[in-house]
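Hey L., structure's done. Input below.
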Amino acid sequence: MRIQVPYGRSFLTASVPDTVGVDIIEAPETCGAADPLDTVRSALDKLLGGAAWADFAGARSVAIAVNDKTRPVPHHQLLPPLLERLAALGIPDAAITFYVAVGMHLPMTPDEFPAILPEEVLRRYRVVSHDSGNDDGLINLGETSGGTPVWSNRAYVESGFKIVVGNIEPHQFVGFSGGVKTAAIGLAGARTIDRNHALMMHPDSRLGEYEANPARRDVEEIGERVGVHLALNAILNQKRQIVHVLAGGPRAVMGPGVLLSRRVCQVGVGTRYGLVISSPGGHPKDINLYQAQKALGHAALITRTGGTVILAAACPEGTGSARYEEWMSGKKTYDEVLERFRSEGFRIGPHKGYQIARDASRMRLMFCSGMEERLSRALLLNPVRDLQAALDLALRDLQPGERIGILPHASSTIPYVEGGR
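Output:
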């Protein structure tokens, strides 16, 4: 059998012997909206949570938070109807600013903006990238009930009408992205992000958990302090087509949005696998290791102890975190990584080393990527030259009768073992 998984802007292929069973683990196929722009307009016509356009007529300043290049948000379909609506309220182009919500990723430069925003938006509106390390551009808004200091982008906070645009999709420790998260984390200061992400250590901060998730509850509180007025969120299928769109008060959007996202993204399997081949889903989900690691975390949910995960991720931009690389320097074992991380306390960057070691210490990790082999080995990723070579090695350890699981779009799939076996 010939198998194929997304890899960067292309695919990797390999052959599996006919004697080995293969399961392609994808959520049920969901058709995209027949007319995506009409679907967006319909959502904007029916705002949820009591939000009303009339409340913002003639707003003197509008701030729109959008995700950076690591998130495949269909801005070319979401933004035109939104901007039409703002124009109908009498808001001039000069009053509208787009804020690229990079979180603790490197700020995007203007020459990178065309990768995420339509040309007309760049021509007509002001666009700026957030910088979490620029204290002069931040404002303090107190603390959440969990003690997270809320530092946020000052210009965004001080705007009269604050909007977030993004996707509702699975997130490995906040449960689901979407709602206020684009601004609450994407436009936050480093101290805020560090403290919020430390909550990933809580057992309820996990993939697909929303209501009882302490990291997500913290995100909601940050968003309330920022004062986000409106969320415009899409739910995409595995082809990255718009299936649903919701708009309105951020909390009101997240309730039905999470239910719809689960229907699109969740899939059950009968048992844990001895071998899972996991792809984040191609570009931009595998733009760097910082993003691609999520596909390992999702695959680990359905891999037995002692089994193997082959992570296939192009990572053209390397690790995406100099702090992670520096912290991993000289570490020789996963146990050393876990012990040092726990003893030193949570830090963004090193937390990627912890997440990888947490899963790789329970099973064998093989890493098939475009990253430099020397760097991959230093990061304890066990690089293998190509997918076929990794598969051939892993097949030797497969137990009699075990099937192979393949997650072609792991980062946007919520796999679970039916019955918890």
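Residues 250-265 form the longest helix (16 residues). Residues 171 and 207 are 6 Å apart (CA to CA).

-- N.
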